[in-house]
Design a protein that fits this description.
heterotrimer; A mainly alpha (about 600); B alpha+beta (about 325); C alpha/beta (about 350); A: about 600 residues; mainly alpha; 2 strands; C: alpha/beta; four-stranded antiparallel beta sheet; 14 strands; about 40% helix; globular
């Protein structure tokens, strides 16, 4: 028969009839599966048809036959059932404890009994129904795999002992620890931390006292305590004490307190059982891998360079490095180590390149002041009129009304000047976004490596919480508007870059080829073909960038940027809902006004 | 033993929550300066350690007006304000402690509030008088609007308004403008300025870790005299009607807690009432936690272990 | 001197192009083997042809046969792996990019299957594009563009946007754009394939008319043999990257180089393609077989270059064969049998 050749696509498999293909696929027990599959196809298989292996040994059967989906489903179902039953080990002892004094613990007994019966019922039901489900579905899933195998030769087929071994490994690695976990109570959140501390502390004491055995350490501590007690007793026996003796006595008391803590640590260490250690390493949070010495506590500072000034170079500065003494016995995990190293790095960069950062801050501040002056000194009727004329020229009457109403809102609520401050910030940030984003977007569209580098960076910029880069921004650029502009740029630039790149990439290959065929150079191709054709996409990016910049206004207020966002933040501080809402609505209105007008301009552009 | 993995059966916790309120979890504020944080950790350690009760620091609970309102309500959403600076919060004191009688407090410790500069500015500025010189104000002008900036505090703090009043009363408001931002942001900015030896003028107080982190010098202010402080922060035109032209008196710093705690967790209420801190102790905790970067709970537990007599006196007092 | 000379051009897409060429030359590997062994795809395989001045040279082949790839070598949109292309006697492979751009803008016009007009520019600005690239001022651009528009009978459409025109009109704009700079050479990459049959026919006729006036040297790509026969002075047939036969339509129809070409031309009407000389029986062999022709003056006569259509016309209404006369001498004879076999494309018995 040629059915198989026809069904398996372009390359006919060397399979002459369906029976042979089932034999090839199923390997063992092919006759049984052949008839099952045939009945399935004819719709004659009764719904109660059951695969006994699926019912009794589903993990083994499915792994042996390579039906991995079924392996995982049956494993999960069985695990759920078993975990429920395991609750007996978790609450059983508690119930037994409660029974010791039934009258006092009536509520507890009732609760545990109820929980246990629910867990047991659910557990048994899951086990039985789960197995029934697998038994009923086994051959149907197997048939689906067979159908898939006929199309895709990489699909698992036949029977393999290797797969059973893999399945057994999975079981051994996952099942026991999961079941064990389910029998354990929640671990106290500080238990593991204290455990690590006790182990660390004892290790330190061992080396300090020069002993290797904990028992030796205990006796060494006891010796020292005895000596201190004796000395204290002698001193206290004296009726009158000299000043020296008094201070010695105070010192002894301090040493005794210290000793007590050391003793505590050693006692704690002794009580750490292998089970506790295991619990902390495997069933709690991911274990702390290493506790290491913290990075050297360095600070950098740029100070006037007296020598150079003495030599006549006025205003010369240099960076000095100060190292603080390490805190005795402080160890940190990798997270803290890295975080502190970053702090030190920022401090170094700030001191080393103070000139660059200050210059950049100054440029930002100066441009902000200019734009702010333009917005704030232009009388409001002029700006409102301009906005409404723009709306009238590019959009419908509805937009004109909306723009008028929104700006009236700002004016009536006396938010005009503050809104203009926000506008200045948005305008400067948007300008930077365009000047940086456009070239980067072009570069990204043209260069595969650039794309490969830029894409993940943009994704990070889009998703990283803005609050987390506000502090570094402050560290480099001080407080108030300039770092706010930069933080806004970080937040708002990705759509500009991405949509520029998208717009350029969307230009059809054939159009570019035509331009080249008529003698266009790369630059002409970009300026006369790609950029003009990408304009709608770039405008969409610009629109999004402005919206994001506005939504960043509130966050920027956290670092002292003035504007509508500052009102929102202040209102949050004073729990003044009304103020915050009004300022928030004002931001939204400004955003919508810009959005509507830009959309109008955009659609009038893309009509071309 | 501390290390036994505590079998905190969920059932037991639920039971505690539903039966007699003696075990109710005490909710502590999470204010954004480190003295308040240190006190919070010690209180939590006392409540969960020797007292065997439950306590929780509500993360991000740093809006003081919200905290006072919550304690006034007494519904258990927030129970303890760990560091109430007086007279900065006179309004809350009058309304909740005196008026409604819904908030209780302990015996205060002393704090100080002053205006500071980094040490490298000490030759330039010694007292408030120096701030009246335009050339000095110009050194502090970073935004180019002709006014020097100083940090007056967080927008949620009462002290922020007091500093604005003081600068106006000293006649400095034509040369200086306040920068009102959170303490954390300000500290980041200060660290940056300090690294570049740039001018900074700012409010700071003791006890605070900022004095360990940076070498700071106090700007001298006129001594207190009769009638030098007349402040009404609640007035609509608070800046105009208030007057303040001398150094701020030492602050009384309280632990404030909801009166309702006396019903819901009397043992803890009693302990809070008895707590008597000193500025030195708070300073020590701040040093350990924020300067030596030690684990706060560890510091608190250690202090409790070393001062069991004091703690027992608070609990049983 | 030919206007376009393509000599031994290979194009292999893939990293191991040189090895692949060597292997194809020495071992005669086919497309699939090359793909298997070198991961390389043969685009053009050893193509050579020339196009004379004023000639329309058709490259015909199915899709994937490499004809579009080959034509893009002529203006070096695609670099050959090996081989040379000379335009007006100059090797374009040796040109600097500046010279090459000048060549593309001034000497070669190109028309594309999908028009590839710039949607944001008016028809006039599209046509003036190549001139703009060369820095011509706006006034002259507009004049030349309007002239080109008139040439393709689209007078007055200069201020429209391409999207406002129908497909056929857009392709006229494409043609006008190619003609605007008055280039010596036209490259037409399946220009009429995307159009309705009726419009296609119209445009073909119009282009033929234009061509007779303008005498542009043209390389015309098509996948349609009818079109190739209509348009082409000569036709090159491509298969799997290789030019399998070059010749006039008649050559290809009457003497296909291989089975592939024979398959192609099997369904083609020979009436207008095949000339009398191709099917006639030489008068000597006729005489040798049947003896001398009597009453020759009564027979209808035709010239050797007359097509079968003419012979059919002459043969209807008479039982007599047609005599083929050249320079006053009878050179051959076409009987009814011969004519019918000739129409069918089979050999007379």
């Amino acid at each position: 028969m040629s059915t198989i050749a026809a069904m398996s696509g372009a390359e006919p498999r060397e399979v002459e009839s369906r029976d042979v293909s089932v034999t090839l696929f199923a390997d063992r027990n092919a006759a049984y599966y052949g008839s099952v599959f045939e009945r399935l196809q004819k719709g004659e298989l009764p719904f109660w048809h059951m695969n006994l292996a699926g019912l009794l040994i589903p993990w083994v059967w499915s792994a042996w036959r390579g039906v991995w989906l079924m392996f995982w489903v049956s494993l999960a179902l069985d695990m759920v059932g078993l975990v429920c039953l395991m609750q007996n080990f978790k609450y059983g002892p508690l119930l037994a404890d409660a029974h010791l004094d039934p009258s006092a613990n009536a509520i507890l007994i009732e609760r545990y009994t109820r929980w246990l019966s629910v867990y047991n019922n659910v557990g048994i039901a899951t086990l039985i129904l789960g197995r029934l489900l697998i038994g009923l579905q086994a051959n149907r899933w197997y048939f689906k795999q067979y159908s898939k195998w006929r199309i895709d030769e990489h699909t698992a087929c036949g029977v393999e002992t290797r797969r059973v071994v893999i399945a057994a490994l999975i079981l051994v690695l996952a099942a026991p620890i999961t079941l064990y976990r389910s029998t354990q109570q929640r671990i106290d959140e500080r238990a593991c931390f204290n455990q690590v501390r006790a182990i660390d502390g004892t290790q330190r004491l061992l080396s300090r006292y020069g002993v290797t055995e904990v028992s030796d350490l205990t006796s060494a501590l006891a010796d020292r305590r005895d000596r201190l007690v004796t000395e204290r007793a002698t001193l206290e026996a004296n009726a009158s004490l000299t000043d020296d003796q008094k201070s010695r006595l105070a010192e002894i008391r301090r040493e005794e307190r210290q000793l007590r803590r050391e003793n505590d640590a050693v006692e704690d260490f002794k009580t750490v059982s292998a089970k506790d250690r295991f619990d902390c390493l495997f069933i709690d949070d991911f274990p702390t891998l290493a506790r290491i010495d913290p990075p050297e506590d360095v600070t950098y500072r740029r100070v006037p360079d007296e020598d150079a000034i003495a030599q006549g170079r006025s205003g010369a500065t240099k960076v000095i490095r100060q190292v603080k003494d390490p805190v005795e016995g402080r160890t940190v995990n990798i997270f803290t180590y890295t975080a502190e190293s970053i702090d030190i790095g920022i401090n170094f960069l700030r001191a080393q390149y103070a000139g660059i950062f200050d210059a950049l801050t100054n440029v930002l501040r100066q441009s902000l002041i200019r734009v702010e002056v333009a917005f704030m000194l232009t009388p409001w009727p002029v700006l409102v009129g301009l906005a409404m004329i723009l709306a009238w020229a590019y959009c419908g009457t509805g937009t004109v009304v909306f723009v008028g109403a929104s700006l009236t809102f700002l004016a009536v609520f006396e938010l005009w000047q503050i809104a203009m401050q926000t506008m200045a910030l948005v305008v400067v940030a948007t300008a930077i976004c365009i000047f940086v984003g456009l070239p980067v977007g072009i570069w990204m569209a043209k260069n595969r490596i650039a794309n490969w580098i830029t894409e993940p960076i943009l994704d990070v910029m889009q998703t990283i919480p803005s609050l987390s880069y506000l502090v570094p921004a402050v560290a480099f650029f001080g407080i108030s508007q300039p770092p706010a502009v930069l933080a806004t740029v970080v937040f708002a630039i990705p759509p500009m870059v991405k949509l520029t790149a998208l717009g350029i990439r969307q230009v059809p290959q054939s159009t570019k080829e035509a331009a080249l065929a008529f003698g266009a150079s790369e630059r002409q191709l970009l300026t006369k073909v790609e950029l003009p054709m990408a304009v709608p996409s770039i405008m969409a990016g610009l629109n999004q960038t402005i919206m994001l910049a506005l939504s960043m206004a509130t966050i920027s207020a956290f670092i002292g940027a003035e504007g509508l966002g500052a009102i929102v933040t202040a209102a949050l501080g004073d729990a003044q809902a009304g103020k915050g809402l009004l300022a928030g609505i004002a931001i939204a209105l400004v955003a919508m006004v810009i959005d509507r007008i830009l959309k109008g301009i955009r659609s009038s552009l893309s009509r071309i | 033993m501390r290390l036994t993995l505590k079998a905190t059966a969920i059932g037991a916790v639920l039971l505690a929550a539903t039966s007699a309120g003696a075990q109710e979890t005490v909710k502590l504020s999470d204010l954004n300066w480190n003295g308040a944080r240190a006190i919070g950790h010690v209180l939590k350690a006392i409540i969960t350690g020797p007292m065997g009760s439950e306590a929780e620091i509500i993360e991000g609970m740093n809006q003081q007006s919200v905290i006072y309102a919550g304690m006034d309500k007494g519904d258990g959403s927030i129970d303890v304000h760990t560091d109430m600076w007086m007279p900065n919060w006179q309004s809350a004191w009058d309304e909740y402690i005196v008026g409604n009688g819904t908030v209780d407090h302990n015996m205060p410790y002393k704090g100080t509030s002053n205006i500071y500069i980094p040490f490298y500015m000490a030759d330039t500025i010694r007292s408030i008088d120096d701030l009246r010189k335009p050339e000095i104000a110009a050194m502090f002008d970073t935004d180019g609007d002709g006014l020097g900036e100083y940090w007056a505090g967080d927008v949620t703090w009462a002290s922020t308004k007091r500093w604005q009043i003081k600068f106006k009363s000293y006649g400095l408001d034509s040369l200086w403008e306040p920068n009102i931002i959170s303490a954390d942001t300000f500290k980041a900015g200060l660290a940056a300025a300090y690294a570049a030896s740039q001018p900074q003028l700012f409010y700071a107080w003791t006890p605070e870790s900022i004095h360990v982190q940076f070498d700071l010098v106090k700007v001298e202010e006129p001594a207190r005299f009769e009638g030098c402080e007349d402040v009404d922060l609640d007035a609509e035109n608070w800046l105009e009607v208030s007057h303040f032209e001398c150094v701020i008196a030492d602050n009384d710093v309280y632990i404030a807690f909801s009166q309702s705690l006396w019903d819901r967790n009397p043992a803890v209420a009693k302990m809070l009432k008895n707590v008597q801190l000193t500025g030195d102790e708070v300073g020590l905790w701040i040093l350990e936690i924020f300067e030596k970067k030690r684990d706060p709970q560890e510091v608190a537990e250690e202090w409790i272990a070393d001062n069991q007599d004091i703690v027992n006196a608070w609990i049983n007092g | 001197m030919s206007v376009v000379e393509v000599d031994g051009v290979w194009k292999i897409f893939g990293d191991k192009a040189d090895e692949a060429i060597a292997a194809v030359r020495n071992e005669g590997l086919g497309k699939p083997e090359v793909l298997d062994r070198f991961g390389a795809i043969i685009g053009v395989k050893d193509a050579s042809f020339t196009v004379e001045e004023g000639e329309i040279f058709c490259l015909m082949g199915l899709s994937g046969s490499g004809k579009s790839t080959l034509v893009r070598h002529i203006n070096r949109l695609i670099e050959p792996t090996t081989g040379t292309i000379r335009i007006l006697g100059e090797d374009i492979g040796a040109m600097t990019s500046e010279v090459l751009r000048a060549l593309r803008a001034e000497k070669i016009g190109m028309v594309f299957q999908n028009m590839a007009l710039l949607p944001h520019r008016s028809v006039r600005d599209n046509i003036g594009f190549a001139l703009e690239l060369r820095g011509k001022d706006a006034y002259h651009r507009a004049q030349l563009a309007d002239h080109a528009l008139e040439t393709v009978s689209l007078h007055g459409y200069g201020d429209r946007l391409p999207s406002e025109l129908s497909g056929g009109m857009q392709q006229r704009v494409g043609l006008a754009r190619a003609l605007a700079a008055d280039p010596e050479i036209l490259l037409m990459d399946e220009p009429f394939s995307a159009l309705d049959p009726l419009i296609r026919r119209n445009l073909q006729d119009e282009f033929l008319g234009l061509s007779q006036n303008l005498r542009k040297t043209t390389v015309f790509i098509t996948h349609d043999l009818d079109e190739a026969i209509r348009m082409g002075d000569r036709i090159g047939i491509m298969n799997d990257g290789e030019i399998v036969q070059i010749g006039t339509a008649e050559d290809i129809v009457t003497a296909p180089a291989d089975d592939y070409v024979a398959d192609f031309v099997a369904g083609i009407s020979r009436l207008k393609l095949v000339s009398a000389s191709k099917i006639m029986v030489k008068v000597e062999s006729h005489v040798a077989r049947y003896g001398p022709i009597d009453d020759a003056h009564e027979y209808p006569t035709a010239r050797p270059e007359d097509d079968l259509d003419t012979l059919v016309e002459l043969s209807t209404g008479t039982e007599l064969p047609v005599l083929i006369r050249h320079d006053g001498n009878t050179v051959g004879i076409v009987t009814k049998d011969t004519l019918l076999h000739g129409l069918q494309g089979t050999e007379a018995q």
